[in-house]
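Exercise 3.2. Students should predict the tertiary structure of the chain below and write it as structure tokens, then compare their answer with the key that follows.

Predict this chain's 3D structure.
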Amino acid sequence: MTVKIVQLTQSQLLGYLSIIRQSFHTVAETYGLPEENCVASGSFIKMDQLMGDFRRGVKLFGCLCDGVSAGYMQLEMTEPGKFTLDKVAVLPEYRGQGLGVQMVNYATAYAVKHGGLTLTVSVFAADESLIAWYTRHGFILRDTVTKPCLPLEVARMERDLRGLEVE
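Answer key:
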């Protein structure tokens, strides 16, 4: 299996919109998230939201597995030295094959190469297995918060990038 992560251009966004929605659909089902009170969920993302992120300078990446689009993630420098990883998505049929690990490793290396000191990710606080997964990959649970655009608490996790060496 060959995995390649590429930064997306504006013309590629429409193709990845369905990948994001399909990937997060299982999350919406698991937690019973309705679109009307969960606009921040990737399962309900709209093209104008993606375009807005792209225009704001958020780095949007696609993950290709043997040349087929299988995943997506966003990376944003929110302030000097601080990066946020968002919308890490892998299509259900590609899960369990290490794509998520490769995307997180890529995001970490990208952030370090661009002066990152920390990398933050947010997940639903109720998703203990995902919190454990990110913990195994160097993230520490910082706090939980309530966001007005989501009906569930969000766990904010952070990885210290200082001293990391990347290729």
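Discussion points: Helices lie at 13-31, 47-56, 99-113, 128-136. The longest strand covers residues 68-79.
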